[in-house]
Amino acid sequence: MTLTQIAFLVVSAVTILAALGVVVGRNILRNALALILAFLGVAALYVLLEATFLAAVQVLIYVGAIAVLIIFAIMLTERLMKEERATNEQWWVVLVASALLAAILIFLVGAVEWQVTFAEIGGDPIANLGRALLTTYVLPFEVASLLLLMALVGAIIIAREREEA
Predict the structure, then answer these.
(1) Do 35 and 2 contact (CB within 8 A), yes or no?
(2) Residue 157 has pLDDT above 60, yes or no
(3) According to the model, what pLDDT value does residue 2 have?
(4) Does some domain include residue 10?
(5) Half-sphere exposure of 56 (CA within 13 A, CB side)
(6) Given 27, 35, 108, 141, which is the most exposed site by the fewest CB atoms within 10 A?
(7) Residue 68 belongs to a domain with what CATH number?
(8) What are phi and psi of 86, to 5 degrees?
(9) Residues 44 and 52 sit within 8 Å (Cβ to Cβ)
(10) Number of folded domains in the chain?
């Protein structure tokens, strides 16, 4: 095995374990920190695939913006930080549904004959992406930023209402 393959296996294992920590953890703040680790793992996978631009975007947008926003919202809402045990009596339904979905996906991925084609990318792909984001997809881009801003303002309003009461 080469060093790149070993690095891929280690980074993949860390990313999968962090994603599992997000799903099965009981403390929401630790879940958010595990989410940041999973995002960083995905960025490391992009680096191993030599997609450095995607790795930088992953770190800047997901780790730098969304994960920090999630942690900020968690810290603003005090009741989420209390050590209460939340139980769900229907966990077995989710387990069965998840196993069934995983089996279907594994079957479909194995059954399909994937065709590989090599196509030449015209021009500078990063410049094309920037042009598309600022022309064709400017409205969804701005809507996403407004949704994030509204979530942040909503978290602040909820936190202030609880402080005044």
Answers:
(1) no
(2) yes
(3) 92
(4) yes
(5) 5
(6) 108
(7) 1.20.120.1200
(8) -95, 125
(9) no
(10) 1
